[in-house]
Amino acid sequence: MEPVATWTPEYFVENESTCLKQLTAEDDTVWRSIPLLNCMAPQHLVDGQLVRFRGMVQDMQDPECYLKRYGVRCKTSESIVRHQNGQYRDMLVYNAATERVDNTNGGEDKTFGERRSMFVVTIPGQNRWAIEHEKQNNTTAGGGATEEGSDEDPTPIPGRVKRGHDDDEEMDTDAPADVREKETKKPATESKSAATETQSCTAAPVALSADYLLNSPISDRPGKACLVKLYSDIENWTLNTVIEAVGFLSVNPALDGAGDVADMDAFEDEMSEHQATHPPPSLIPRLHAISVRKLTHTNPLLLDSRTPSSNGSPDDSAANAAIVKELHNLLTQCLFGDRVAADYLLCHLVSSVYLRYEVESRGQFCLNLSNIPGQVLPVYTESLYQLLEMLLPASHYFPMTLENMNTVQFAPRKDYTTNKLTSGLLQLAPHTHLVLDETRLQPGKLEAAGVEAVRHVAHLINDQQLKYDFKFYQLEFNADVPVLVLSEGRSMLPSNCQVPIMPDLDAIELIDETIKAGRHYIAPKLDAVRRFLTTARIRSFDMKTLDPTVVEEDFVEMRVGSSGEVSMNDLHTLFVLARLVGLSSGHPSLTRDHWERAKKLEQERRNRLQMFAKPTVEP
After folding, report:
1. E strands present in 151-208
2. pTM above 0.90, yes or no
3. Is the peptide bond before 378 cis (omega within 30 degrees of 0)?
4. Domain residues of the chain, as ranges?
5. Which one of 94, 233, 465, 577 has the minimum C-beta count within 10 Å?
């Protein structure tokens, strides 16, 4: 068996079952030995190299036809010299000086196949520590060099590389000596509207911007992108799925569609679409996938772990108890000494959708922390978020100013000029925490776009679904994005749970110093906390271990005590909270203690809501 670093498309096709068995071994040694494209600098990318790419499926391109196998003839003797594999390549392989692709009698030796490209972006909102950990653990796995620079720096945007128009121009390739690659051409699909990024027919065409091509959901935090080409199981993947793909890299400069614009004078309307579907490979490389995995989380501490630690493991009850205690104390101090608010925030941090039934979802736990003291704003909300991003692999802070609400695109839209799905702020990977700072909202008017933005956020909170705008119709896609809303009063957005903070007066004055001290205090324990939160969020949890008669009796008692105001929705909320109390304690199943703790928390929360409720003015 050849070392994985020496695999070629031809070798893989001939030994597919053996190679896949080696890739999917339980210990993952071979898989992890493959260099991670996310951490490689553009100048170190090698065409044909076997690499991995980790990210979220942001868009799907139309299926394309390609030459799966074809004959190569000698120009002199016109005899077939070999049959060439066309899988896992973008280019035809032959020596242009002495050979040609067989087109005799329509090319009887040609076999066509179909493949489809997924536009995959690095995890939107991935936090600095997670990026840094990926780099440290994926340095020289397969000879790839890591990218230098700040973790938050956008992807370097190289100058556009134009393709050469001389077919005899020499090109570097890993094929045998005197063998070169030639681009596989296919006609572009007709565009339905004129390109907005392109000038009129009489002017020189303008290339699409790098920002538009990278298409990051969070525009001020751009990452990398990759076109992952699928040859099998094409229908198994959906938008927003987090994947890790292994495949052969394709970065030949001739793949840049911008270089073809000069040849497309008769098809001016198609130029933008051609550029969008054939971006510069130096900016957006291609990866011809031989194996793709769905990832259940985005925490690199667990994804890249070669020697798994028990620290933070859901089965280590002693370690879990210590971690929960430390984390709860930290959150309490950073929430002005409010232990109840800390309980709810901890539950929010391990929440996720665990069940879907038709259009309904179960498990989401949008939390509205209200009654934030005005004298600590706006610094406090940003400081609290900075603490949370230390704990979470992916998150995003969004100040809900009028300008942001009226101008930011929240939901993805289909651009039919380029046949590209332009992303929106809410197109996030599962378990990416979205923190909405409503304390930044000032008096003013929400325009039509702002009102639509509120609708999108409300729909995401209530149903964990997002409507994608395809101009002539809308499609709903599932999401799993925990939303935390910070506000002074009750939020204008819906929530699963509103918790008014009851601050300690002394804590208000010292909150800046408290958060700084908390960050310093938790630093040595961060990795354990990060592992615990992720394992708690994704682990299975048995809710059938609680005696149903206990639930029935308590529900009757609650309805009697509230004069019938407690509904089935309230019971569902209590069940979700009890589940999260159990998960945040590191337990695998629901116990009576978790149920009683959830009841106590809900009673305290309801008391607070009554306390802050505006008195009804009688006529």
Report:
1. 180-183
2. no
3. yes
4. 4-147+175-185+194-295, 317-612
5. 233
